[in-house]
Amino acid sequence: MVVSSTDDYQATDQKSYDKMSELKAFDDTKAGVKGLVDAGITEVPQIFILPPKYRPESSDTCESQFIFPVIDLEGINEDPIKHKEIMDKVRDASETWGFFQVVNHGIPESVLEEMLQGTREFFDQDIEVKKQYYTRDLTKKVVHTSNYDLYNPSIPAANWRDSVFFSMAPNPPSPEELPKPCREILMYYTKHVMELGRSLLELLSEGLGLDRCHLEDMDCKEGLGVVGHYYPACPQPELTIGISKHSDGHFITVLLQDLIGGLQVLHQNQWIDIPPMPGSLYLNQLCLFLLHFQLISNDKYISVEHRVLANKVGPRISVGCFFSTGPSPSSKLYGPIAELLSEDNPPKYRATTVKEYGDYFRQKGLDGTSALLHFKI
């Protein structure tokens, strides 16, 4: 592969660099970024090098200590007063950050650790074993790939990560279809996360002044996708990024990460480091593949932009669970919830189908802009 050192990106002779051929050569290996690192590369290949204006700078990150929301869910179903206090905190965090961390969420720490370990073991398998899952067909129930938007011409550079995606609800794969290293823990972890998702949707509904079942009745947790990300150690992390700035498009994203760090959220126009905390989950009202709370809440809840930095230390492992509607195309329209609208609060977004939103998001790719703008009235 053609490589570039330090800041030579702009000086590269573009005539000697056929980006599409380089992308295809990388993709055809089916070995992902991990395959490059395992081969012993000492410089970042050019397809991963961000133009200077896109590179994260240390000055981008706020040095002051923001107190980001940490919400303790203990006793949520035992005491009405405690329940109200937790609901208020969830509402406030969703309105001001679009992000919060939850502790005492009911998922044993051993289960969290096993889920991270199972994900790591999937990527540590022999390449010939992993190749059977490598595909760019995102309709499959198990998808191993590197950069779903790899060939998108609007993307300035590929991200330094590999991924494996599992469609776990409403029609999960049979156990035999799941990779052996994470088969049992994936099914067990999914059950726990589905229970947590139901509790969170109830809190979010109540925070909007709606019946506690309102969002679940809208099918906001009918579908569940689980994605494991693998960020190999990077020889030149200043030239690339783990995941570019974006906001997710599912109703809820529950994110589990290991202790390496690198996750940042954009708050008050400043990038904030989100340090790992043992035994916790990160919860984001974001916007990625389908719809999101900012649209259906008519900006009452916000979508947070976030990114993951590349690191010389690795691999970094994370597992995201995405709650959405079911995967089948539907003509059902999702727009700002009628009960939230008034003469003083008219709809700010047009209604859209899950398919339209998803198609637009995939076509746009992780180009650093929000898909929300496309649906704004």
UniProtKB/TrEMBL annotation:
PROSITE patterns listed in its UniProt record: FE2OG_OXY (PS51471)
Fe2OG dioxygenase domain segment(s): 220-326
Superkingdom assignment: Eukaryota
Gene Ontology biological process: coumarin biosynthetic process; response to molecule of fungal origin
Entry keyword set: Iron, Metal-binding, Oxidoreductase, Vitamin C
Gene3D superfamilies assigned to the protein according to its UniProt record, in alphabetical order: B-lactam Antibiotic, Isopenicillin N Synthase, Chain
GO terms for MF: 2-oxoglutarate-dependent dioxygenase activity; L-ascorbic acid binding; metal ion binding
InterPro entries attached to this UniProt entry: DIOX_N, IPNS-like_FE2OG_OXY, IPNS-like_sf, Oxoglu/Fe-dep_dioxygenase_dom
Keyword Oxidoreductase attached: yes
Pfam families given in the database record: 2OG-FeII_Oxy, DIOX_N
Similarity annotation: Belongs to the iron/ascorbate-dependent oxidoreductase family.
PANTHER family for this protein: 1-AMINOCYCLOPROPANE-1-CARBOXYLATE OXIDASE HOMOLOG 1, OXIDOREDUCTASE, 2OG-FE II OXYGENASE FAMILY PROTEIN
Official protein name in the record: 1-aminocyclopropane-1-carboxylate oxidase -like protein 6
